[in-house]
């Protein structure tokens, strides 16, 4: 039970939980307290020092939007943002309630009347923007993965193919999302023409930009993983006469999964960074737009609100990375 | 890992190794003598400075049920011979004939035990054997027959206790046992072993050699084993094939080991005949084919 819990914590990347579990079970308390200090105490102290420095130094900086906010103001702004979100939701609920009542009345008077249901068009709150961003990054990342993994496997299996497209990969890999964005925008508005589009154009733009930038790490890592498979494993497949598909699915793919997941993890991290920049530049909904809007808004609270966004972006990036790392640990077999 | 465990499949008579009196049996024996014919194989590897001839006209006839060791200094092309027989490499000249048919592609009739076990690390012990069995006996054995066969082969190598363990969770010796079980489970005509115990410590190696002799007594497989280890070669083999140093390596001398089976390593350690064979191999390796570099 205890060991299972410890293994679970380690797989999930919560190694700081391990000494706590051991301490509770009374396993060498002194060493555990020592470990807890190392794993939890030291980061805690560092964060504390950071907050104090931030708090004191921020007061020294006067901007045109007032004083640079310290930790206190930022905390306050995060609560305001939450309150605004709640308020907006209440408004939305009220709107739908009114609409429904109105329609009901209409139908009572005349059962054949056509009733209209309009979506609520209130302002997107901070939390709405967060979810838009997460949704967008996963869409872009998903698109990138379904291109990069098969292509990477193909490159890993065929040295000729890899040699052929290697230069293209090297050239496109370092391109900034901001350079892609105008092209993507123009291409999407030219190609993605529909009267009743399933997705907003802005969403498609952001997602494709993410795709273009997060494709490469997965592609390169997959190709490397597949081409570096232990030759004996391939030979095992040959001796038992697996056909080509089985050779790929039963040997090449599982053998390179750890590499593939390393690539996916880097890709998702890049995708998240790219997305914020793209949203900011293109005014596409999401956290990037929130930051830009606040910047343009220029109220005395703006800087505080932007800092809330900065921490949110960091935290979500951290969570995404943790997710991928845990997945990577689950699929790796050594 | 108790060697006395129930390893009682058919006690196949070792007919090819016993002197025959009847003239009829002689004709049959001739065919059996030529069970596996490695016929004048040479191989060139392409290098920047032109082709490099690694093997030159290796010629070897192996009888059914015979246990052959290939011994030689590293780089002499022992593994290349094995890989050609396995079909993993293609000979530039010559060919390999098994039971009258030429073989030039890999297949389960020539199962290989690799030096580094080569178990698929994401599969359990059972699944590692299963993947080979499923592939080899597709449409021949039913599901339950396959299951029984997998368990039987793992039993042979004394690995029944770890069916659900992954390779990373078992020792090197155990991994090699599973590798052997996987190869045996393909019911190969020839079992090819590429330094199967090379990566193991001496005690584990001895254990596995004993297991292999036991299995061999039961199944009477035709085996080609590559080894560096003189004791291993003498203990296990019917014939020891000593190779010259590369490049253009070929068969140097062949030593017939007439020691009676079952062989016991402790008794043999003090046996004159055994030591004579050892001496023969050692003098070949360290006097006649002394490595100069």
Explain what the structure shows.
The complex is a heterodimer of chains A (334) and B (293). By secondary structure, chain A is mostly helical. Chain A folds into three domains: 2-61, no CATH class; 70-123; 126-331, Orthogonal Bundle (MetI-like fold). In chain A, 79% of the residues lie in helices and 1% in strands. Chain A is built from twelve helices and two strands, in the order H-H-H-E-E-H-H-H-H-H-H-H-H-H. Chain A has a two-stranded antiparallel sheet. In chain A, a hairpin with a 2-residue loop joins strand 1 (62-63) and strand 2 (66-67). Chain B has 293 residues and is of the alpha/beta class. Chain B has a domain at 29-105 and 226-293: P-loop containing nucleotide triphosphate hydrolases (Rossmann fold), CATH 3.40.50.300. Chain B has helices at 23-33, 78-86, 125-136, 143-156, 172-185, 202-219, 230-236, 265-268, 272-288, and strands at residues 36-47, 50-62, 67-71, 93-98, 101-102, 112-113, 190-194, 222-227, 239-243, 251-256. In chain B, strands 6-7-8-3-9-10 form a six-stranded mixed β-sheet, sandwiched between helices. Chain B has a four-stranded antiparallel β-sheet with strand order 2-1-4-5, with helices on one face. The longest helix of chain B has 18 residues, at 202-219. The N and C termini of chain B lie far apart (42 Å). Residues 1-21 of chain B have low confidence and may be disordered. Chain A binds chain B through residues 230, 232-233, 235-236, 238-242, 250-251, 254-255, 257, 333-334, and chain B through 86-88, 106-108, 110-112, 114-116, 118, 120-122, 131-132, 135-136, 166, 168, 186.
């Amino acid at each position: 039970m205890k060991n299972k819990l410890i293994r679970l914590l380690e797989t999930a990347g919560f190694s700081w939980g391990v000494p706590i579990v051991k301490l509770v079970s009374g396993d060498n308390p002194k060493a555990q307290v020592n470990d807890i200090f190392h794993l939890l105490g030291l980061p805690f102290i560092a964060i504390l020092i950071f907050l104090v420095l931030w708090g004191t130094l921020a007061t020294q900086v006067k901007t045109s939007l007032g004083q640079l906010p310290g930790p206190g103001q930022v905390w306050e702004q995060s609560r305001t943002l939450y309150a605004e979100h709640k308020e907006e939701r209440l408004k939305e609920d009220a709107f739908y309630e009114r609409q429904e009542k109105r329609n009901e009345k209409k139908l009572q008077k005349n059962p054949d009347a056509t009733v209209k249901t309009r979506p609520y068009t209130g302002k997107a709150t901070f939390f709405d923007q967060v979810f838009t961003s997460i949704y967008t990054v996963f869409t872009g990342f998903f698109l990138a993965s379904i291109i990069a993994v098969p292509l990477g496997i193909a490159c890993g299996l065929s040295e000729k193919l890899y040699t052929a497209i290697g230069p293209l990969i090297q050239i496109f890999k370092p391109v900034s999302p901001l350079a892609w964005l105008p092209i993507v925008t123009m291409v999407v508005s030219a190609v993605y023409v529909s009267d009743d589009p399933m997705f907003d154009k802005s969403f498609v733009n952001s997602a494709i930009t993410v795709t273009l930038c997060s494709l490469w790490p997965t592609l390169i890592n997959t190709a490397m993983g597949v081409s570096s498979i232990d030759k004996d494993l391939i030979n095992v497949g040959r001796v038992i006469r697996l056909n080509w598909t089985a050779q790929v699915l039963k040997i090449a793919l599982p053998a390179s999964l750890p590499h593939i997941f390393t690539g996916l993890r880097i890709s998702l991290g890049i995708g998240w960074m790219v997305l914020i920049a793209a949203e900011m530049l293109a005014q596409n909904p999401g956290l990037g737009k929130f930051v830009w809007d606040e910047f343009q808004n220029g109220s005395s609270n703006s800087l505080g609100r932007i800092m809330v966004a900065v921490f949110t972006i960091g935290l979500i990036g951290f969570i995404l990375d943790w997710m991928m790392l845990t997945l990577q640990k689950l699929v790796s077999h050594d | 890992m108790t060697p006395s465990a129930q390893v009682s499949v058919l006690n196949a008579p070792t007919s090819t190794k016993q002197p025959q009196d009847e003239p009829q049996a002689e004709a049959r024996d001739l065919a059996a003598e030529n069970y596996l014919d490695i016929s004048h194989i040479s191989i060139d590897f392409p290098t920047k400075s032109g082709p490099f001839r690694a093997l030159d006209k290796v010629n070897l006839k192996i009888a059914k049920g015979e246990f052959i060791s290939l011994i030689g200094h590293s780089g002499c092309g022992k593994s290349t011979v094995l890989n050609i027989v396995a079909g993993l490499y293609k000979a530039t000249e010559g060919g390999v004939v098994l039971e009258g048919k030429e073989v030039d592609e890999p297949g389960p009739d020539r199962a290989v035990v690799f030096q580094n076990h080569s178990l698929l690390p994401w599969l359990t012990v059972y699944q590692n054997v299963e993947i080979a069995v499923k592939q080899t006996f597709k449409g021949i054995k039913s599901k339950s027959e396959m299951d029984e066969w997998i368990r039987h082969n793992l039993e042979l190598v004394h690995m029944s206790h770890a069916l659900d363990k992954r390779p990373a969770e078992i020792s090197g010796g155990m991994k090699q046992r599973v590798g052997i079980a996987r190869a045996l489970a393909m019911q190969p005509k020839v079992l090819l072993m590429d330094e199967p115990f090379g990566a193991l410590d001496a005690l584990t190696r001895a254990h596995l050699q004993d297991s292999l002799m036991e299995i061999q007594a039961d199944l009477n497989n035709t085996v080609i084993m590559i080894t560096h280890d003189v004791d291993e070669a003498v203990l296990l083999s019917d014939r020891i094939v000593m190779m010259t140093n590369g490049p253009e390596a070929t068969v140097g001398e062949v030593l017939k080991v007439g020691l009676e089976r079952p062989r016991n390593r402790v008794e043999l350690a003090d046996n004159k005949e055994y030591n004579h064979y050892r001496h023969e191999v050692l003098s070949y390796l360290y006097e006649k084919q002394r490595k100069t570099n």
